[in-house]
Amino acid sequence: MVYKTRFLENIIKKAAASSAAVVVTGPRQAGKTSLLSAIGRKLFPNMEIVSFDSPAEADEFGRDPGLFFINHPGVLLLDEIQHVPNIFPYLKREIDRHPDKFRFFISGSQVFPLMRHVAESLAGRAVILDLWPFCIQEARDIPKSNDAGDTLALIEQPRLAARLKRNEFICSDRHDIVPAMLAGGYPKMLIHHAGGQWLESYRRTYIQRDIRDLAQVADLGKFDRFTVMLAGLSGTIINKARIAQAVGVDNKTVDHWISILETSYQMIHLPAYARNPTKRLVKRPKYCFADSGLCLHLQGIRDSRALLNAPHFGQLFETFVIMEIRKLYGHAGRSWDAFYWRTPAGVECDLVLSAGGKVIPIEIKHGTTIRRDDWKGLNSFMAEHPQETSQGWLISLYPKIEQLDKKIWHLPIGALLHGVSG
Prior knowledge:
The protein has 2 domains: 9-131, P-loop containing nucleotide triphosphate hydrolases (Rossmann fold, 3-Layer(aba) Sandwich); 137-418, no CATH class. The protein is 44% helix and 15% strand. The chain has 19 helices and 13 strands. α18 (376-384) links the parallel β10 (358-364) and β11.
């Protein structure tokens, strides 16, 4: 079985040395089991894997939870634990028996229900981490000396940019952007090159199995059409009333189905950044599909020509970049505190990160030529928030890190995809 190193490995190893349990959540097929198995086998050669995705394993626990743990006394990898939500009080009891001894690796694919149980039963007892599909740096086997934290440090600390000004981070549509967007980040696509057939299978499994597990959806056909529509609107502020009318459901159902997509890691939302409640701003959230490969597959975009000719390519590119940054935060074990900003006149920042007591506005442009108009949204945002901002980034395909203005730097997309060094 082929296994690629993940940035989260060292963080999980450190967590296993200092806590009794590690919980890793993320979408189905993101590689949680492979990651925890690889780490667990190295640290604990006799570790046992119990997959609750199997009805037999779930039934064994359900028949007698106490006997289950007697029969499995060593270090356990408990996989897809959302299938046995009543296990958490028993996990708490097992951990409290030997609080200084590592006992459990835990994985789950449905974040909201799982986190509720973790918060109720395992608070202070477990380290909780997110695993998304591969970010491009992981997929391209960036040297182990470099990790997600290097790139995030550059984004958050402008003083680090000066030492990289002579470096070039070359990135092209043909060799980098388009192949990465079409493939997405799921291991089956990147390692085994499964292609569109696997994505279609993932779609069918997600709709026909996962959705039934997560919530009762009366009409799976309508939910599928809804998912396709949301994929086409990725990176936008959606009109829920129009979506409801197009799919044939009410607004309440749209809200519920959006929460399902977020719960199962298929989509994220960016709240509007609005520190001044009296200021006139667009305040509805922006939604981004999590995996570019699945997002494009759902829209019927299957090759480079169709992608580059798509009228909303800029929107898709923006979402791709936002999710690469999101993955870097998750795979560095860092919290994600992100927004977007837009005025009614259309002046905007595609992404606003909150880190270290500061906010960092980011504008994303597809192209290699930089024009002053490209960062007018950054200037507007920083003028509105002078105490909170110290720098802003313009991200594009231009290959060099440069200071564009007093507080504005250029960050090449190649630095996000290939990592930084020097």
